[in-house]
């Protein structure tokens, strides 16, 4: 063990001298790309902030955010544009990548503007998903139905 410690000591010294820092970006600019299977919402556009729902909790992304990869959970992505406008988009699932250069990419399985959602249609989808869950017999069918219920519940909440 002592030999291993002596061997690794120079490596640990080098690591101690390194400092962790936030992304180095020019000014406070954050380039944002957001696409779903049905539409591209932003294509390398400067925005002020993006709020995302993830399985590790919802969080906001600002310029110079620590580089991160996260999985999106069903919910609403809120984009605060440079001009002061706010856009809300429902996502069923997907990924978010925050890069060292302050660029952010969101790739969603399904994405729709919240303003275009129909609450009664969302409630119908939830009802059908719950029926599917109740009638599922195999573990696979139960898992798929549980996912459908989770997405439908988030859809109902977003459309309210």
UniProtKB/TrEMBL annotation:
Q: Answer whether the UniProt record assigns the keyword Transit peptide to this protein.
A: yes
**Start and end of every ATP synthase F1 complex delta/epsilon subunit N-terminal domain?**
32-111
Pfam families to which the protein is assigned, alphabetical: ATP-synt_DE_N
Record's Gene3D superfamilies? ATP synthase delta/epsilon subunit, C-terminal domain (1.20.5.440), F0F1 ATP synthase delta/epsilon subunit, N-terminal (2.60.15.10)
Record key words, sorted: Acetylation, ATP synthesis, CF(1), Coiled coil, Hydrogen ion transport, Ion transport, Membrane, Mitochondrion, Mitochondrion inner membrane, Transit peptide, Transport
Q: Which residues form the signal peptide?
A: none
Coiled-coil region(s):
119-146
GO cellular component, as recorded: mitochondrial inner membrane; proton-transporting ATP synthase complex
Subcellular locations according to the entry: Mitochondrion inner membrane
State one molecular function term (GO): proton-transporting ATP synthase activity, rotational mechanism
Q: How does it assemble?
A: Component of the ATP synthase complex composed at least of ATP5F1A/subunit alpha, ATP5F1B/subunit beta, ATP5MC1/subunit c (homooctomer), MT-ATP6/subunit a, MT-ATP8/subunit 8, ATP5ME/subunit e, ATP5MF/subunit f, ATP5MG/subunit g, ATP5MK/subunit k, ATP5MJ/subunit j, ATP5F1C/subunit gamma, ATP5F1D/subunit delta, ATP5F1E/subunit epsilon, ATP5PF/subunit F6, ATP5PB/subunit b, ATP5PD/subunit d, ATP5PO/subunit OSCP.
Database matches in HAMAP family: ATP_synth_epsil_bac
Spell out the NCBIfam families in the cross-references.
ATP_synt_epsi
Q: Which family does it belong to?
A: Belongs to the ATPase epsilon chain family.
Its biological purpose: Subunit delta, of the mitochondrial membrane ATP synthase complex (F(1)F(0) ATP synthase or Complex V) that produces ATP from ADP in the presence of a proton gradient across the membrane which is generated by electron transport complexes of the respiratory chain. ATP synthase complex consist of a soluble F(1) head domain - the catalytic core - and a membrane F(1) domain - the membrane proton channel. These two domains are linked by a central stalk rotating inside the F(1) region and a stationary peripheral stalk.
Q: What is this protein called?
A: ATP synthase F(1) complex subunit delta, mitochondrial
Highest classification ranks of the organism: Eukaryota, Metazoa, Ecdysozoa, Arthropoda, Hexapoda
């Amino acid at each position: 063990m002592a030999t291993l410690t002596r061997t690794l000591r120079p490596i640990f010294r080098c690591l101690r001298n390194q400092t962790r820092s936030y992304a180095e970006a020019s000014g406070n600019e954050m380039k944002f790309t957001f696409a779903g299977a049905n539409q591209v919402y932003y294509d390398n556009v400067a925005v002020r902030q993006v709020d995302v729902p993830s399985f590790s909790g919802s969080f906001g992304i600002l310029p110079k955010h620590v580089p991160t990869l996260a999985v999106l959970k069903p919910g609403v992505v809120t984009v605060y544009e440079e001009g002061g406008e706010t856009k809300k988009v429902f996502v069923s699932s997907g990924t978010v990548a925050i890069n060292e250069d302050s660029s952010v990419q969101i790739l969603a399985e399904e994405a729709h503007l919240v303003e275009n959602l129909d609450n009664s249609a969302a409630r119908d989808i939830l009802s059908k998903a719950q029926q599917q869950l109740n009638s599922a017999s195999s573990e696979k069918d139960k898992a798929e139905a549980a996912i459908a219920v989770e997405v439908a519940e988030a859809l109902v909440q977003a459309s309210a």
